[in-house]
Amino acid sequence: MLSTLRNAWKVPELRKRILFTIMMVVIVRLIAHITVPGVDATALAKQIGETGGLMSFYNLFSGGAFSQMSIIALSVTPYINASIIFSLLTVAIPALENLQKEGAEGRKKIQNYTKYASIFFAIVMSIGTIGLINRYGVIKDTSFWTYFTIVVALVTGSVLLVWLGEQITAYGLGNGVSLIIFANIISRLPNQTIGLYGSEQADPVVITLYLAVLIGLLICVVITNMAERRIPVQYAGKAVGNKVTRGQSSHIPVNVNGSAVISIIFAMSVMSFLPTITSLFAADSSFAKFIKESPYSIFNAKSVLYPIVMFLLVIFFCWFYTELQLKPDEMAENMHKSSGFIPGIRPGEPTRKYLETVIGRISIIGGCFAGVIAIFPVIVAMVPGLEAAMFGGTSLLIMTGVALETMKLLESQLVMRHYRGFLK
């Protein structure tokens, strides 16, 4: 990996892209310290540390900007939500599906629709954030203009962050939005390390075991991120006029961990939605107490049922999203149109069933691993002395995925210039 970075630095174009990416990330982290007016950030940070749930999840994605109530407190979450919803709508709405099939121009239109939808989601999330934090008394002035200023600041910060991500994608290195999330998670590591070792119940033996498990989890994440099931495809030869095309062999790669992050986001949103809603009501109500404190509540993070339901939800969403993205019926149809077939499988309906079976099995295997990743922080939080260890498997999954994709991009650029990287 170091040789890849060293060789990339020698190429003037890649060096400019790397420097531009670093500069954009620095700007993002500087903006994270611009706070929204009228909010007591200290009281909010304390409340998020005690409450956890969906607010802690947003705080992770924003690199601590949510607890500081920065103008980028929403991070790129509205854009991610809009992207996920539009990827689902392309299956349900024929007009969007036709746009996606039009190629680059159609995808550009869907991208514009996604941006407009992200602004709407940012407005809704800003209003919801005000309603949530106002209950904790962290907003000093409760006038209409204060609320309006907070909404405008949060929406502007989210749009600015998405724009910076687009600049990184166009002039930098890698996917800009993913790199911003990566930088935000990395920025939380020093505070989390200090909180872990500074805990009064911190046990050196327990912390050492935790770090060992974390390293083992990192190795597993790297392996599963690079693992794929290759479905062999044979294309028959064609004769078009006087030109004869020879048959060739290829394969369809199905990534084991392709939908892991999305499935965890879906599952965490479902499990955190009701506790977040109950926070808007009276804290001493019987319904709120049952949701948050009852050992029989599936939404209580300290109950036995919570990790079990979370695990099952992650598996379901991983299977569901993989089926939506890969579309076995379209794969079988396109393969038939291209005179391709899977060796030993008849074209048409048998091919579709075979692809559904293979993709279903791979998605369930990936879902099981993603489920372990999702419940890892929950299990760790139950261990005495590790309550402050907020860094879990989801962070590792995102960081590893972004890092590997960026290194693959660097490697492909170096191969074009006849350099050797770490992928021999």
Description:
The mean pLDDT is 78. Helix 1 packs across helix 17 (393-416), helix 6 (94-101) crosses helix 7 and helix 11 crosses helix 17. The longest helix has 33 residues, at 349-381. Strand 2 and strand 3 form a beta hairpin. It is built from 17 helices and five strands. The strands form two sheets. A three-stranded antiparallel sheet has the order 4-1-5. It is mainly alpha-helical and 424 residues long.
Radius of gyration: 24 Å
| pLDDT < 50 runs, ≥5 residues | none
Q: Compute the separation of the termini in Å.
A: 11 Å
Tell me what portion of residues adopts beta-strand conformation: 5-15%
* H/E topology pattern: HHHHHHHHHHHEEEEHHHHEHH
Strand order of the largest sheet: 4-1-5
Number of alpha- plus pi-helical segments: 17
Q: How many distinct beta strands?
A: 5
| Content-based structural category | mainly alpha
Helix content: 55-70%
Mean pLDDT: 78
* Largest sheet entry: 3 strands, antiparallel
User: What would the principal axes of the Cα set say about the shape?
Assistant: globular
